[in-house]
Structures are given as C-alpha cells and as structure tokens.
Design a protein that fits this description.
Elements: H1 3-8, H2 15-39, E1 51-53, E2 56-60, H3 67-76, E3 80-86, H4 92-101, E4 106-112, H5 119-134, E5 141-147, H6 151-166
Parallel strand pairs: 2-5, 3-4, 3-5
Antiparallel strand pairs: 1-2
Helix pairs in contact: 5-6
C-alpha cells in the first residue's frame, strides 16, 4: 500500500480499543500465571467453608498468611468483598496495592488491632465489628476475615470470628 492509499483509506483504526484489548490480554496472562503458581500452595484449601447468613457469605481466611494468596482468594470471589483484617506485619501500602489491583471489588476494609497480650479485648473488637457489618451488608457481599499475625493469635481470632458469625 502506498502512502497516498494509506492517507485516503476510509478504514479507521481505533487505537484505544487495541490498547485496551492488549492490556486485557496481558492482565489475563498475568492472572493465569499467578494462579498457577499460587495453586501449588493450595491457597483455597486453606480457607474454611464459608458460612451463609441471610444470603451474605462469611469467610474465615486466617490460614492465609501472605497478600499474594489473599489476592488469589479475592479474584475467586464473585461478590463485593468486605475485608476485616488484622494487619500484623503487613503495611498500608501493601493493602492499598491489593485494593487497586482488584479494581473496586473490595467494598470496604475494617482494620482491627489484635495481639497476644489483649485477647479478651480482641474478641470484643471482632464481635463489635461483625455485628456492625451485619447491619449494612447485602446479599451481594462476602465478608472475609484475615489475620497476618502469629499462628496463636490467628487461631484465637478465628475462634472468635466463627462463634460471632454463628450467633448472628
């Protein structure tokens, strides 16, 4: 094709569409690669069976110990996510990176501070948080609880979460 034919060609190329398509292909390949890598860890097997109360799923994911596994779990959930998190050793920047990567899938984040020294206070905090959330959630939501802390703290928090959800 000559330059004259190219200049007078009536076909228009939508570069924005091509760019978006290329971005989506790259994102899809990245997701597939990451999922294959994370599935080796059997991430989803670590999540306890969700409990459904009034159409809302409550998931105890305290056995997930890194943010990459959390991201994989969130990618598999087909509802809006309300994330209750005991940050432990994670930083705000890491949490915000997951929030951006999921592109609006996380509806809200409730942060609790828990440690081995104040387990009595922790149960009150978790119970209050879950009771507050239960008043505002819809059937399009999934409440996910994660704790990136020591195994002992995670076990205790998991027990409190489970008992609070069962009492709803």
């Amino acid at each position: 094709m000559t330059i004259e034919e190219l200049a007078t060609d009536k076909t228009t190329v939508n570069y924005a569409l091509k760019t978006e398509r290329a971005y989506n292909n790259i994102r899809k390949m990245r997701n597939e690669t990451l999922m294959r890598g994370f599935l080796c860890e059997k991430t989803l097997d670590k999540v306890k069976n969700p409990v459904t109360v009034s159409g809302v799923d409550y998931m105890d994911a305290t056995n997930i110990h890194n943010l990459n596994s959390a991201w994989l779990l969130f990618e598999k959930i087909n509802k809006n996510i309300i994330w209750i998190i005991n940050k432990g050793l994670t930083t705000d920047k890491e949490i915000n990176n997951i929030r951006k990567a999921l592109n609006g899938k996380i509806k809200s984040i409730y942060e609790i501070q828990a440690s081995e020294n104040d387990m009595g206070q922790n149960s009150l905090t978790i119970s209050d948080t879950i009771n507050s959330i239960s008043k505002i959630v819809t059937s399009d939501d999934c409440v996910v609880f994660m704790s990136f802390d020591t195994e002992e703290v995670n076990h205790n928090l998991s027990d409190v979460f489970s008992s609070t959800v069962q009492s709803l």
